[in-house]
UniProtKB/TrEMBL annotation:
Belongs to the ROK (NagC/XylR) family. This is ROK family protein. PANTHER family: BETA-GLUCOSIDE KINASE, ROK (REPRESSOR, ORF, KINASE) FAMILY. InterPro entries: ATPase_NBD (IPR043129), ROK (IPR000600).
Length: 151
């Protein structure tokens, strides 16, 4: 029996600490982190997800570089989870995935490029259909399942 173990490298952890100001993976892989990284790299202020994607669509090279850095960070986390759990499907949510048309193909390509063994890639990589509300609704459903309303 072969075993495969590949967890994020120390060098990558140092990179994340430097560029994402010590944030954990979940916070560093958020829309807020993407926008803050773009603001830091571009010198612009008061940006949001919409303005970032507008700049990206207009060909802003700083926005493109920022997205590549962000996706590198995001896919490292996805791969770590995939190596540990080997899920059939990986569903990604959050407001940023209103642009799933732009993000999912790039994420899939980065995962294929980085993965040590394709057996560990999820068969499906999907954007949550509920967008930014997916996590909250899932938490409410879990709570109601655990603590049914009585009455």
């Amino acid at each position: 029996m072969n075993s495969v173990c590949h967890i994020t490298s120390i060098a990558h952890t140092v990179y994340i600490s430097k560029h994402y100001k010590g944030q954990d993976w979940q916070n560093g892989a958020s829309t807020t982190a993407l926008v803050r990284l773009y603001e830091n790299k571009s010198g612009k202020s008061q940006q949001d997800g919409r303005s970032f994607f507008t700049a990206l669509e207009e060909g802003d090279p700083v926005a493109e570089e920022t997205l590549e850095s962000f996706l590198d960070h995001l896919t490292e986390g996805i791969l770590t989870i995939s190596y540990l759990l080997n899920p059939e499907a990986f569903i990604i949510g959050g407001g940023i995935f209103a642009r799933a048309d732009l993000l999912l193909p790039r994420i899939k390509a980065a995962l294929v490029h980085k993965v040590q063994d394709e057996r560990f890639l999820p068969k499906q990589l999907l954007a949550a259909s509920l967008g930014n509300a997916a996590g909250r609704l899932g938490a409410v459903k879990h709570f109601l399942t655990q603590y049914p309303l009585q009455g």
